[in-house]
Amino acid sequence: MRSRIILCPTDFSETASHAISYAVEMANLYQVGVRLLHVVDKPFGDKHTRVLAETQDELNERMEKQAAVEMQQYIDSLEGYFPFESSISHGHPVEQILATAKNIDAGMIVIASHGRTGLNHFLNTNTAEKVVNKARCPVLIVK
């Protein structure tokens, strides 16, 4: 851990921003870098699609471009704070987080948890919990 990059997945939420501050603190302590990762998940529902207006590939490309813009704005807002590496990937968030951690030989994953409980926890998949259970490196969950 002490000499390997810290992976910090983000969905651009306030909770994820809070997790980044922990990642930066750990990175400063161990003198390592931070890689921000945003995963563009498979879209579902009318919110993301236009009826017969675009193909799945066009939709994926549009979502990736939007994620790239959001990632750059996000990094710009933090730039004076710490230099970041960043990447955007497509697919299931848990799978992509774990694959990225393996590919970059991450020393730690710092991930936000939205703290859902009860029925809301049951109905919404908990990415942080699944990452903790499957990761091969230490994972810090931030609420």
Automatic annotation (TrEMBL):
Gene3D superfamilies from the xrefs?
HUPs
Q: Name one Pfam family in it.
A: Usp
Superkingdom classification of source = Bacteria
Locate the UspA domain: which residues? Answer: 4-143
The family note in this entry says: Belongs to the universal stress protein A family.
What is the protein's given name?
Universal stress protein A
**In which organism is this protein found?**
Shewanella sairae
